[in-house]
Amino acid sequence: MEKVVNQYSGNYILATKKVVKRRAGLSESTMGYVFILPWIIGFICFTLGPMLFSLVLSFCRWDLFKDLKFIGFENYINIFTDDQYALSGLRKTLTFVVFEVPFQLVISMLVALLLNQKLKFVKTVRSLVYLPVVLSGAVAGQMWKFMYNQDLGIFNYFLSIFNVQVPWITDQKLALFSVGFTGLWAVGTSMILFIAALKLIPESYYEAAEIDGAGSVRKFFNITLPMLTPTILYNLITIMIAQFQCLAPFLVITGGGPAKSTYVYSLYEFQTAFKYQRMGYASALSWVMFIIVLVITLVVMKSSKSWVFYESERK
C-alpha cells in the first residue's frame, strides 16, 4: 500500500512539474510583451496617436474655437506659395543647422579627446561638463540671455576692458549665431558618447602605429578618427534633429528678434499653434518639417556607407 502511495505521489509530482514547466514556458514567451506593454500603451497614446491626429489636422482648417473643416492640401500649398514667414523661417533654420551641427560635433569631440587623457580629477571634470545637460532649455536660455546682456552681461564685462561693446542679441547679423553658441551648453551628451567610443579603441592599434613611427597627428587621422565614425554618424543625426526642433533658446533669448532675424521655423510653428490657435495650419507646418528632416536623415544614412568605418567589416 505504501509503495502504491509513493508511486502515485511520484507520478503526481512529475505531472505537476510538467504543468508548471508548461505554464512557465507560456509565461516566458509572453513575458517580454507584458514588460513592454506599458511602453506600447504610452507610445500609442502619447506619440503615435497624436502624430496621426496631427496628420489628419494638417488637411483641415481648425482654429480651435471654430468647427473643423476639411480643406485638402490647401495648408501645404499656402506654406510654399503664400507664407513668407514659413519660407524665411526655414531658411534661417537651415542656416542655424549648418552652423550648429559642425560646431557641436567638433567641440564635443575635442572635449572628449581632452577628457579621455589620464589627468587628475578627470572624472569630476567630465561630470561638470555634462551637468548643464540636465537643466531645462528655459533655464539655460535665461542664463545665456543675462550673459549676453549688452550692459550687464559677463561677456561685455570682460570686453569692456578693451573698450569693446558687442550687441550679441540685438544685432540682426549676430543674433542667430549668438543663439548658436549656446549649443556649448548641450555638448555633454555627445562628449560622453565620444569618450565611450574612445575607450573601445584597442591600445594595440596605437602601439603598432608607434612602432611604424606614426606621430600624434597621423595616429588621430589614421586610427582615432576612422574608429569614431560610427559615433560621429549617431551624434550627427541626433544633433541635426535636435537643432531642427530647437525652440527654447529662440523663444527665451531673442523671441524671434531683432526684426525677425531669429524667427526660425520652429518658433513660427509654435506661435501659429499656441498664440494664433491655428492648429490645422500648425500641423501642416510640423509635417513639412518632419518630411525635410526625414529626407536629410536618409541622405546622411545613405552617404555614411562611404565614410563610416565599422571594425567588424574589415577584411
TrEMBL record:
Membrane topology: Multi-pass membrane protein
GO biological process entries: transmembrane transport
Transmembrane regions: 31-59, 94-115, 127-146, 152-169, 176-198, 232-259, 280-301
Main location: membrane
Subcellular location: Cell membrane
Keywords of the record: Cell membrane, Membrane, Transmembrane, Transmembrane helix, Transport
Domain ABC transmembrane type-1: 90-300
Domain of life: Bacteria
Nuclease recorded as keyword: no
Gene Ontology cellular component terms for the protein in this record: plasma membrane
Family membership noted in the UniProt record: Belongs to the binding-protein-dependent transport system permease family.
Designated name of the protein: ABC transmembrane type-1 domain-containing protein
Species for this entry: Paenibacillus pectinilyticus
